Amino acid sequence: MKDILVNNCKMDRLDWVLDVLIAVAAFMFALIQITLSSSPLVFRDSLFRSMMGVISRNPDPSIYILLALTTLPLVVRRRLPWEVFIFTFLVFVTSQGDAPSYSFSAIGPMIALLTLASERTLYETGVAAAIVVILLFWMPPPGENAAIRLAVVVQNLTLFAVAAGVGLALYAFNNYKEESKARAEETQRRIEEESARRVEEERVRIAREIHDITAHSLSAVSIQAAAAERLIDRNPAMAKEAVAQIRLTSKSALEEIRSMISVLRNEDAEAETKPTNGTDRMSDLCEYAREAGLEVTYDDAGYDAAQVPAYVDVALFGIAREAITNTVRHAHAHKLKVRLANTDDTAVLSVEDDGCGMPEGGAASDGLSESSGHGVQGMAERVTVLKGTFSAGNRPQGGFAVRVELPLGKRE
Fold it and tell me: Please, how many CA atoms are within 13 Å of residue 398, restricted to the half-sphere of its CB?
C-alpha cells in the first residue's frame, strides 16, 4: 500500500524547482483562461453567449481558491501521484458549477493524470482513466443546454485522453531507456567476464609453460651437477665441461622465462631485470622517509626472514613501499612507524603515520602513489592473492594505518 501512496522516485533540488514552476504556470494558465472566457472580449455576440451558456461577469473570488486547489498540489505530483490526481480531479468535477460558465480549467488534473501515467504501472493508469470517464459522465457541468453539456463532457474526456496518452508515451520511453541501460550494463559485464576468463586462461597457459621450462631445465642441471660431482676428482676437465653446461642451461632457461613473462608487461614499459627486492631493503625505505623529513621508527626485532617464504617477504616489502610512499607524498605526516614481525605461521606488517588520514567519504584509491600506480586497493588485492588479511583506515588518534597479515604456508 505504501508503494502505491508514495512514489519512491529520486528527486534533486532541480526537480523540485521544476515542479514548483509547473504548478505556478498551470495556475496562471487557469486564471487567464477563466478571465478571458468570462469576459465579453472573447465572445462579443450576446445571443451566442446565451446559447453557449457563457456568462459575462467577473468570477467569484472563491473560484481562484478552487483553481489553486487544482494546480498548486502539482508541486508534489511525482512523489504522491495518486493523491494529487484524486484531489485535483475531485475538486475539478465538483467545482464546475461554481464557475461563471463552462470555463473551469482542467489543466491541473490533466497534468496530474499525465504524471500518474508516466510514473506508475499500466494497470494503475487504466484505473485512473476509468475514474475520469465515470465521474465526468456522472457529474457533468450544470446548465440548461444538454447538447452543450455533452459537448463539454466530450471535450474534457478528449483532453484527459490526450494527457493520459502523453503520460503513457513517457512511461514507454522511460522503460526503453532503463532496458537499454540494463542491456548495456549486461553487455559490459559479459565483456568483462570474457576478458577476465581469457586473462585467466593466458595466465594458466604461461604458468604451465614456465613450469615445463623450469622442470626441464632443473632436471638437466641436476643431471649435469651429479655428473660433475662424480668427475670432479677423476676427470676435472669433464667436470668443468659439465659445470659449463649447467651454466648454459641455466642461462637459456632464464632467458626463456624472461621472454615469457615479458608478454605480461606493458610494451611501453622498460623491462625490469634487477632482482626482486625483499624486506632486507626496508632500511632503504626508512631512509627515503627520513630524507623526506619524517621521524621514522622501524622495528623488525620480531621478524626472521629465514622463516618467511620468499614470495611473502617480497610481498611485504612491496606493500610497505606502497604505504610509505603514500605517507610521504599525501599524508603530510611528521612521524612514521613501521613494524615487521612473524610467528610460526603468520607474517605481520604495520605502517602507521600521524598525518591527515583519508578524507571522510573518500575512496580508498584516492591516495594513489604515482610511483607504482597502486593504492590501497592494489595493496588489498595483493594480500587477497596471498590469502592474507588486510586493513587500512584512519586511526582514532589521527593519521592513517595499514596492517597486513600473510600466512606462511604454501599457496594452493
Answer: 9
5 confidence band (pLDDT: 50, 70, 90):
confident
Asked if pLDDT for residue 348 goes beyond 80, the answer is yes
Burial of residue 70, with CB atoms counted within 10 A of its CB: 0-12 exposed, 13-18 middle, 19 or more buried:
buried
Q: Which uninterrupted H or E stretch holds 342?
A: strand 335-342
What would the grid cell of residue 338 be? 613501521
* pLDDT reading at 184 higher than 50: yes
CA dihedral 81, 84, 90, 96 (to 10 degrees): -120
**Which residues share a beta bridge with 400?**
394
Q: What value does the mean pLDDT take over residues 293-312?
A: 89
Helix (H, G, I), strand (E, B) or coil at 359: coil
In a domain, 201, yes or no: no
Please give the DSSP secondary-structure letter assigned to residue 74: G
- Segment 71-90, tens digit of pLDDT: 999 999 988 899 999 999 99
Phi, psi (5° rounding) for residue 12? -100, -175
Residue the block writes with cell 513517457: 170
157-169: average pLDDT = 92
First to last CA, the chain: 53
252 and 300 inside one domain: no
Q: In 327-375, which ranges are continuous DSSP H helix? A: none
- Total domains in the chain come to 3
| C-beta separation of 49 from 55 below 8 A | yes
Which residue carries 632457461 as its cell?
Answer: 253
Three-state DSSP at 207 gives helix
Q: Output the pLDDT for position 44.
A: 47
- Domain final residue pick, 231, 262, 293: 262
The candidate with the shortest Cα–Cα distance to 101, out of 162, 144, 157, is: 144
Instruction: Please count the other Cβ atoms lying within 10 Å of the Cβ belonging to residue 108.
Output: 30
* Assessment of whether the complete model's pTM goes beyond 0.70: no
Looking at the fold, whether 41 and 149 belong to one and the same domain comes out as yes
Could you tell me the CA-to-CA distances from 247 to 183, 215, 225 in Å, in that order? 58, 16, 10
Share of the chain above pLDDT 90, in %: 31
- DSSP 8-state class, residue 327: I
Cα–Cα distance, 133 to 6 (Å, whole number): 24
For residue 412, pLDDT over 50 is answered with: no
- 184 class by beta-carbon count within 10 Å (0-12 exposed, 13-18 middle, 19+ buried): exposed
